[in-house]
Design a protein that fits this description.
Layout lengths: L2 H37 L6 E16 L4 E13 L2 E6 L5 E2 L8 E7 L2 E7 L3 H37 L1
Antiparallel strand pairs: 1-2, 1-5, 2-3, 2-4, 5-6
Helix pairs in contact: 1-2
Length: 158
């Protein structure tokens, strides 16, 4: 194979590896964030009523359709301070959530910003699982590309 073609193939593989590595890292961060919340669930002895203060619109599309989804932002008060929880993992079709709807918020009394909205606990567990699966799959492809690049460089240098 021509040397310039090999070089372009290496660069393309390296770029793809960097993109896959970045995506795997993003999935890892999401998994870690959601795991930290679920791991502290036993500490969440405080409970208040929260309400949807905002519905964030998210635009999705594929090759055929475009549609709007949304996820809720829950506001709750502990003492004299207001807190918010953005539930981006609870994304649904537009029109599903209504501003003012109330939900039960469980929080850590020493850190009220650490909370789980009880009605969305199942969605949080599912989102954590999806993040873990996505991270593992992307890491497999990432490591495969890195191994291929290293072995090709090793063959050329030998």
């Amino acid at each position: 194979m021509d040397t310039s073609v090999e070089m372009v193939a290496w660069i393309a593989c390296a770029v793809i590896a960097v993109v896959l590595g970045g995506l795997a890292y993003m999935n890892f961060r999401n998994f870690k964030k959601r795991s930290n919340l679920l791991n502290r669930a036993d500490e969440m002895t405080g409970s208040v009523s929260g309400r949807i203060s905002e519905v964030v619109k998210v635009y999705r599309s594929n090759s055929s359709f475009r549609w709007k989804n949304e996820y809720p932002v829950i506001t709750y008060s502990v003492g004299d301070r207001d807190y918010t929880a953005k539930l981006d993992f609870a994304e649904k079709r537009a029109g599903h959530y209504s501003i003012g709807d109330t939900y039960r918020v469980c929080y850590v009394p020493s850190d009220p910003s650490c909370c789980i909205v009880e009605e969305f606990r199942k969605a949080l567990v599912s989102a954590r699982k999806r993040s873990l699966i996505g991270m593992v799959v992307l890491c497999i492809f990432f490591l495969n590309l890195i191994y291929s690049l290293i072995s090709q460089i090793g063959t050329i240098l030998a």
